[in-house]
Amino acid sequence: MNVFKSLIIFLGLIVFHQEDVQSQSKNDETKHTIENYQNKLWYNEPATKWVEALPIGNGRLGAMVYGAVENEKIQLNEESVWAGPPIPEDRVGSHVYVEEARKLIFAGKYAEAQKLVQDSVMSKRISPRSNQTLGNLNLKFDLKGEVLNYNRQLDIDKAIAKTTFTSNGVNYTRTFFATAIDDVIAVLLTADKPNSISLDVSLDRPADYILNAKGKNKIQIWGQASHDGKHLGVKYEAQLLAIPKGGDMVSEDGNIKITKANSVVLLIASATDYNKKNPFKPLKHNLSKICSNTLKEASKKSIKNMMFDHISDYQELFRRVTIDLGTSPLKEKPTNERLEAVKQGSDDTGLMALYFQYGRYLLISSSREGSLPANLQGIWNHHMKAPWNSDYHTNINMQMNYWPAEVTNLSECHKPFFDFIETLIPSGQKTAKNVYNRKGFVVHHTTDVWHWTSPIGKPQYGMWPLGGAWCTQHFMEHYRFTGDTTFLKERAYPIMKESAEFLLDWLTIDPRSGKLVSGPSTSPENKFVSPEGENISSNLDMGNAMDQEIIWDNFTNILEAAKALKIEDAFTDKVTKALENLSMPKIGSDGRLMEWSQEFGEVNKGHRHLSHLYGLHPGRQFNQIDTPYYIDAINRSIEYRLSNGGGHTGWSRAWIINFYARLGAPQKAYENVKALLAKSTSTNLFDFHPPFQIDGNFGGTAGIAEMLIQSHINDKNGNPIIHLLPALPLEWATGSVTGLRSRGGFELDFEWKNNQLIAATILSKKGGVCKVLVGDKFIDINLPANGKQTLTNF
């Protein structure tokens, strides 16, 4: 009886599955009709380059879909496929030379100090040692007839890519998604006439792989990441399972050949031996068994149910926020034509709203709980030797990836960042001791999945021990936005304290001022003309503005957290005294904020980094309420950089949007949003440096949010001031948003018309007090947990 029941259930699943895909085929649009413009990227031709393909991802697995008709390629990624050791190592005992370099700098001998640091402190940069592509899924179709009604799209409301076209009277639909629920990449091929799908399916990789057929419906690919047999790294495996309905299927030489099927489902699973907690002790699990089990479980579902679960899981995050920046006359144009129109000078507020939501889509797709954090390329990298190894640059790029996480209601997506930074503590403690003979933990300008923290390469970028301190700011920001006191106590305060222990030891008295300064260090990644001669340049100084601002940020965060946790001890006393004697950035004779401790000449007047403005954003040291005397100097600094060609990389332009939003300069912020699209955005809306770097996407999304809501300033009682529409440009005259978050644990929906706020609803997640600032009017709010208040009279 049990066997009979099982057979009935099995047959029922087959029928149900076939009905699903046939229903899907019947309901698919055969000719593209425009709907939901705001959350779709769409095109009338296939991608011909990687930066035209459309990204999907589930946090761990990613893919780029080209949308080709006859020879489709889906480029695949798994987050931890990384080439390996040797990695940079600390130069033990370098503190002796650091102290000597300090004396030289104080004596004005900058060139000599830089040479000493280069020769005696910096570790060797070992490259390439890169994140790598997992490989390619190749689909070679047997098609007859002219292709008509072609369309490809990425629906970021559902996280589904789709290609549709007509050939020989048959309407074809190809659907692609990466599900976090079932942990696979899924491909669904359908047609509206039976026996119309014939194709060859294969997997390959540029190097370091073995291919094998496993039965007639499965392909395996496996190997170990390396660079030409060197830098042996992570072992990986991927498996593809083909599930056709109707037709025939055979396996030949590691390929699968399917003929005259009604529909086809392809599922891809992958696993590696990477150990997040200790990468030098690879996991011992059976990669083949993990992939097989994942595919076995996923294939138990109908594709309809798998897609439903995927959409439900994704939309729980994505649909928390909506945005409307006004109607665009270009809304019915394909995305590439809209982008080209912006390049030619047109305004497209709808494309800006799409870009904002696309940034949220990319963060959800590349950073989910339990995954590694988004790297320089998020999770999408087609290289074996990626630019900058696709690593984690902690002198802005990694942090910028997570600027939108809290304010755009994606706190969960922030967690991989916290997990990763905490894994750097043991290495950072060793580097602090080995290199500097200091306590606490330190991270320099870059790291990767092997958790090294040494200063590497050239002083211009590598001699900068403030990366870890900057990263700890994100822990405090997560607490401010969520009010999670458990997180503050168990995770934020301990890591901020670890960083502060190093900073307290690292600071030294500047004999010229008697104040505490950091150094020797660079102002990432700039250089100045040494007073030793016009033809001599240097990167290293004592008391660079960015160093001092990050340290101010760390110390004030420590004291704020300690107050919330009711901690008052010898350590907090030490931080308080150091903060009181900390050297502050200076304003130069030309009225600009000085980047270095002295008024040096600049080698690159339009440098892409605006490091000395950290205290404006993402810091909170400088603002129009508490430090108005710095605001003019910051404005002058930005204008000077831009007038000399600054903002020429995507992420730099995105940072400038955030600066101008904080400065309350809506039209300048808007001009830079437009410039980001016009000058640094590819056809698929990926940001480019160039080449592709995802940080500009995330920084741009954060910048648009910053134009609509700010909450970084507190009132005299320490409660957040929530400023609505602080930098609303004329072009966004009418619009609305829902679900944006503020510090203090508040969630806000608001709308405006004719550039004036007309309604706002405030929800308090934890209960709390705040002030809402509209124009120049303050409104006091006091709400219980889950309490809500609507404001309409301004």
From TrEMBL:
Domain Glycosyl hydrolase family 95 catalytic intervals: 304-708
Domain of life: Bacteria
Keywords, sorted A to Z: Hydrolase
Alpha fucosidase A-like C-terminal domain boundaries: 721-776
GO molecular function, one term: hydrolase activity
SUPFAM superfamilies: Six-hairpin glycosidases
Domain Glycosyl hydrolase family 95 N-terminal: 41-276
Keyword Hydrolase: yes
Stored Pfam families: Glyco_hyd_65N_2, Glyco_hydro_95_C, Glyco_hydro_95_cat
Protein's name in the database: Glycoside hydrolase family 95 protein
Organism of origin: Flavivirga aquimarina
